[in-house]
Design a protein that fits this description.
By secondary structure, the protein is of the alpha+beta class. About 50% of the residues lie in helices and about 15% in strands. The longest helix is centred in the N-terminal third of the chain and has 29 residues.
């Protein structure tokens, strides 16, 4: 298989290309190493060049993402994009019987990999941040590729191709949202009260990681997607906006179930773990968010503590069963970095992933840990040392948080 020729044919002659792909004998390793891993590097590398080397801005001002922060972002986004393609293949396979098709994991992975061609090639527009929106237009063509590929490779009923495509896209959006949340947990934040600057050097290694997928959970979620698709079809025929919105919401919730994470731990349970005082500082405010209303397996509770000379922030986040994906991605960045102004370290201890980052002048520090059940606990603050944050983390009931259970399978 010639990569360039295959990419050209799938873009310019999709129907003929899908017929050829359908007849090919291949495996997951070949699909990834000879195609997906090459194309997925385009948006990752071009994004790094555009944001860290070229920069963006206007009126004579250019803003660039710090070099090493850009490198970390490039590696993490590259790996998570491949994970996203793999999960999309699982979704396509799980939904096939719902739309009159045949389950076949390799055929489903073919659809996920090759339908992503336009979106991945569109990443070249990231070279110039001002043109990045054109990448979105390219990604829209991937929807058409998906639409033309599903009935050929998955043997789905032609009259159900639109519904199959719509439901897969909804599921893909949910996957994208959650993977974006995972990336946000792994990557350092920008400046401000609670976001120290990223440093200019890092040592990275990539220990092996494993993502477990519950196929029984996928099949159960697939049945829910079937019901949601039926409701969407009925709502579209009735042209009732309220019914269409409700059916779309049901499909999003079922798509979240396809991620294998069940429901997130209730936000109120996370809020209960926020102490009234931290390091002797009173709680000055809190924020509780629950993604259940949007059908997302996420929940979050955070609180601010402070006085005139010290500010702290405690945050507890759950992203359902994908917390283990966050641990894997964060584990990729295990290592240390240090320069005259700041230091950072990521390591694993006692089954937990730990991360510290601090400014040597004492202006800012943060300590994060991903617990065994995938919960992320973070303490950060201004005018505080990292050792003090580690001490505060040890005072929290991490074992109690780790014992919290989610509804549904993970």
């Amino acid at each position: 298989m010639n990569l360039i020729e295959r990419a050209k044919r799938i873009l310019l002659q999709p129907k003929e290309a899908w017929a050829a792909i359908d007849a090919e004998s291949t495996d997951a390793a070949t699909l990834f190493t000879r195609y997906a891993m090459v194309l997925a590097a385009i948006p990752a590398v071009c994004g790094f060049i555009g944001m860290s080397l070229i920069g963006f801005g206007g009126f004579g001002v250019t803003i660039r993402v710090p070099f090493v922060s850009g490198l970390v972002n490039m590696v993490v986004s590259y790996v998570l994009s491949l994970v996203g393609i793999f999960v999309l293949g699982l979704i396509i396979d799980a939904l096939a019987p719902t739309f009159g098709g045949q389950k076949n994991s390799i055929q489903a992975l073919k659809v996920a990999v090759y339908a992503s061609t336009a979106a991945l090639l569109g990443g070249i527009f990231s070279l110039l941040p001002a043109l990045a929106m054109l990448g979105l237009l390219a990604a829209l063509y991937s929807i058409y590729l998906l639409y033309t590929g599903l009935p050929v490779l998955m043997r789905s009923a032609p009259e159900k191709s639109v519904g199959y495509t719509v439901v897969v896209i909804i599921a893909a959006i949910v996957v994208g949202v959650v993977i974006g949340a995972v990336s946000a947990l792994v990557l350092p934040r920008g400046g401000g009260l609670m976001g120290g600057a990223a440093g200019p050097a890092i040592t990275m290694n990539t220990p092996g990681g494993k993502v477990s997928i519950d196929t029984a959970g996928l099949e159960a979620a697939g049945k829910k997607m079937e019901e949601a698709a039926r409701k969407m079809e009925e709502a579209q025929k009735s042209q009732d906006p309220a019914a269409i919105a409700a059916a779309t919401g049901d499909a999003a919730k079922a798509a979240a179930g396809l991620l294998g994470g069940g429901q997130a731990i209730a936000a109120q349970a996370l809020k209960a773990a926020l102490p009234e005082k931290l390091a002797g500082l009173p709680r000055t405010g809190f924020d509780v968010q629950d993604g259940a209303a949007l059908g997302l397996p996420t929940s979050q509770a955070s609180a601010q503590y402070g006085s005139d000379d010290k500010q702290l922030r405690l945050e507890i986040v759950d992203i359902g069963g994908l917390g283990q994906m966050a641990a894997m991605a964060m584990g990729m960045a295990q290592g240390e970095k240090e320069d005259p102004t700041r230091a950072e370290k990521t390591w694993q201890e006692g089954g937990r992933t730990l991360h510290t980052r601090y400014e040597k002048d004492g202006s800012h520090a943060e300590f994060k840990t991903i617990l065994k059940n995938g919960l992320l606990v973070s303490i950060e603050g201004d005018k505080v040392g990292v050792k003090e944050l580690q001490g505060l983390m040890s005072q929290l009931d991490l074992n109690g948080l780790e014992s919290l259970q989610r509804k549904g399978k993970s």
